[in-house]
Write a structure and sequence with these properties.
The structure is a homodimer. A two-stranded antiparallel ribbon of chain A has the order 1-2. The first copy, chain A, starts with 10 loop residues before the first helix and ends in an 11-residue tail after the last helix. By secondary structure, chain A is mostly helical. In chain A, a hairpin with a 2-residue loop joins strand 1 and strand 2. Chains A and B meet through helix 1, helix 2, strand 1, strand 2 and helix 5 of A and helix 1, helix 2, strand 1, strand 2 and helix 5 of B. Chain A binds a DNA duplex through helix 3 and helix 4.
DNA sequence: TATTTATATTGCAATATTACGATTAAAGAA
DNA sequence: TTCTTTAATCGTAATATTGCAATATAAATA
């Protein structure tokens, strides 16, 4: 179907999956890394940095924006993109809590 | 195209995206949580716990196995699935390093 | 051996994702 | 106003994902 059955999962599970999913593409990882590295963050620079066409980058930026991880400010004809620190912090809490689950508790006979 | 251009990204970027992608579905999050909670981890139990058909769960388990996050041991007619602690630790390092990037360094004028 | 039980695989339909050329929109420059 | 620049949107092709019914497989049991 291509359609996830989100209804049967908890809000937490869906939120975690949503964050993870948006990070589940190397171009979006690369974009986020670039935004962390650079203080200037013009969309055109991202297009030049990463070897993908402008509409493709624009689409990835849209997805990052849809979960709130980045925000864009119009500056004349160009757009300056930045990490949204509040949302990044939220994601960090959600994902690290999951990643830091105690492995010693996960013991089965296998 | 539906096909990611992995060639133009670094091994690290692709590895991160691969981990994130596999966690990018609530059913797989739910499965991992269940494997953490329970010490017994029979496939059939997972099917009962999560409201998805058996073939669907089997498919999700396959994807989790493909990145090495879980391993399955045959026990008679059933299969016992467990978290692979080594791989989980690897993922934890890769993702938390990314998540813990210094937000104060990411400053633009926006 | 035949039957049951538990899981994997196959095949398929519906939808989503990735990528890009072409076009559009909006702001600045000539 | 016209031209240029920059980024978003549209349209489309190729591929991937999600989900399940039906079937296959493999081990245990009767």
């Amino acid at each position: 179907m291509g359609l996830s059955k989100t209804e049967i999962f908890t809000a937490d599970q869906n939120a975690m999956a949503r964050y993870a999913k948006v990070m589940g593409h190397p171009a979006r990882i690369a974009i986020l890394q670039y935004l962390f590295e650079m203080n200037s963050c013009i969309c055109g620079d991202i297009v030049n940095e990463i070897g993908l066409a402008q509409p493709t980058i624009s689409q990835h930026l849209k997805e990052l924006k849809s979960v709130g991880l980045i925000k864009g400010n119009i500056e004349g004809t160009s757009v300056c993109y930045c990490i949204d620190k509040d949302e990044w912090s939220k994601m960090k809490v959600v994902l690290t809590t999951f990643l830091n689950q105690d492995l010693d508790e996960a013991n089965c006979g296998c």
